[in-house]
Structure formats: structure tokens, C-alpha cells
């Protein structure tokens, strides 16, 4: 159910964005009960004029390596689950792809379970 | 009021994305009480590395013909209306544009009616 | 906390999109209590076939100068604050960048305060 939008600065190595999506997907499955195979993501790359970030908001130093990860998903997960997701995602992006943990910007948008159709014109999650 | 974001794989025929927006708009007007002329949409095309989908989540076979349709609109529509929208949209995309119904991925994001300004700096839908 | 997505027609003068982000950021700080430095935005440019708008919905005349501004931010701001934001943003885009006020399309998406991580894998706004 999640649809994930990832925004990166241009100039990353070939395949980098795809690898980010794999880490995001695996972390959603492992920490916030996203079902296996529920993997739908869009990655966009931007030049410096088009991806705006503050370089030290909340005293977190950010560079052009910043990654915006915006995820629309079903409502109802606890704050503890969300925290576990953020922590694991930043750690894995660091360990697996060398991303600085400071660069990982995450935002969740929550919706009702009847707000999805995964194909065939059916609301698969509605009662 | 809706703002629609449509994400497609590159390589579609000239004008295909525009035709998808016309079907989405017409279906919103016909099934979920979107006012005529309330038509605001953004289409983006992506390469294979940048548009990620599972090829059989929920046993629905998807191909590079997949279309992600994410719609931000006012809250309050019933589950029945949403179901009618999904069904009609998938059927029309199939009938009018030859899209496989399995490829039609839809997500709704609901907001309050005061969360829009359609121009002139006014919240046209607020009381 | 806000993440801002700005969608423009291609062909604007060099640096125009960046200037729009500066006006949006300043207006958020001045009118809706967004903290200084909380500035995260993505700008995309589109051709005529990919940025769809109605040229007179609600009797507001729009042209290819239309600007879609979609902002995800924390829930809880009053209708009065939102109205002040829309008014000031449209006025400033007009005064500072020569944008017609009719072209300024704004949408807010509200989320919970625990739905953000600004880096380091921490939910900085959660209790």
C-alpha cells in the first residue's frame, strides 16, 4: 500500500536510486508491517536549483547527498513503530549505501484503508 | 479541488498521458462529485529504474504499462463512492485507451476543504 | 517540517523556480509559524501536455504561468492562519516576482507531528 516518492540530487552513481528503493522497501516490511511485495515507488532526480534543503535545520548538517523520502501509507501505526522505521531506515541507508544518517529526510502521509486500488478497479483493502 | 499526480513509464505514445488525464477528470466528475472544470493534474514519465512496482502483489499481474494515479481531494466521500470511482476509472482506461485494468494503481489523499486556494490568495472552499 | 512541491510550466526565466521557493519559505515563516531554516522543497518543470489546469475554474483566469504549490505540514493550524498564508503568498509572488495572483494554486496536506524525521533516524517532533 505505500506509495513512496524519493527525491535526490542529480549525479548519484548509476543504480543508486534503485538501491535506495530496495532499502526503503525492506525496512518497511521489517519494521512497520508492510506486506511483502507491496512495493510501489517513484524516484526523481533534481538539480541544485530544484531540490532545496536547509544545511543545518535542527543542527543536522546536510549536503547535496540529502534524500527526501515521502511515503503515503495506511493510518494507524504507533509512534513507536514509526520511530523504529526512521531509525532502521537511516541506519541501513548508512550501512548499505554509505549515506550519511544526517541526509535522510522522511515524511509519512497517512490515509484510510479504502483509499487504495491496486489494480482491476477494486478497493482491495476496504471491507 | 483535486490535484492529481500521474506517474507513467517512458515510451508511451505521443499524447497518451494527456488522454489519461482526460479520463481521470471525466471519471471524477461523473462518479465522485468533482465539479466540472476542476481539473488540475501533473503527469511525469520515468525510466525503469525510477518507477518501481511489484509485478504481482495481491496476485495482480503488472507490467511496464503500470499507471500510478495519486489524487489529493476533499475528505468525506463514502467508501461506496470511492469504489465506484476505482471501478469506473479502470474500466474507462481499458475501454478508451487500451490500458489493462491490472495496471491501474490508485491512491487517494484526503484533506480539509479549507486546505485549498485556487488563485487570488483566497480559500474558496472555506466557510 | 513542511515539504513543498512546486510544479511549473517549462520556459520560466533562469532562477525563477528558486525565487518562488524563497517566497514560499518566507511566507510560511511569517504567517503560519514555520520555524526559521525549516526549508525543504522540490521544484519540477513540465511541458504543456504534462501540467494540466483549467483556464477558468471558479471564474479565475489562468494561463501557462500557473504555479501549483502543494505543501505537506503539521496539522492543527486554524482556518484564519491558512487564509492569511494564501493571501500573503499570492500577494508576495505578485509583488516580488510579477506572478499574476490568479495563477497561484495552493494545497495543504496535514500530517501528525510524529510523521517526520529530519535526519539521523530520529522523530524530532514526536514527544
Task: Quickly name the level 1 CATH class of chain A.
Answer: Alpha Beta
- Number of domain modules of chain A: 1
How many helices of chain A? 2
Q: What do we call the CATH homologous superfamily of chain A?
A: Macrophage Migration Inhibitory Factor
Shape of chain A: globular
Structural commentary:
The structure is a homotrimer of 127-residue chains. With 127 residues, the first copy, chain A, is of the alpha/beta class. In chain A, 28% of the residues lie in helices and 26% in strands. In chain A, strands 2-1-4-5 form a 4-stranded mixed β-sheet, with helices on one face. The longest helix of chain A is centred in the last third of the chain and has 19 residues, at 79-97. The mean pLDDT of chain A is 97. The A-B interface holds A 3, 15, 17-18, 21, 25, 35, 37-45, 72, 109, 111-112, 114-124, 126-127 and B 7, 44, 46, 49-54, 56-58, 60, 62, 68, 70, 79, 82-83, 86-91, 101-110.
Structure summarized in a few sentences:
The first copy, chain A, is α/β, with parallel strands linked by helices.
Structural descriptors:
homotrimer, 127 residues, alpha/beta, Macrophage Migration Inhibitory Factor, four-stranded mixed β-sheet, 2 helices, 28% helix, globular
Q: In terms of topology, how is this protein built?
A:
3 copies of one chain form a homotrimer.
Chain A: E1 3-9, H1 16-31, E2 41-46, E3 51-52, E4 67-74, H2 79-97, E5 104-111, E6 116-117
Parallel strand pairs in A: 1-2, 4-5
Antiparallel strand pairs in A: 1-4
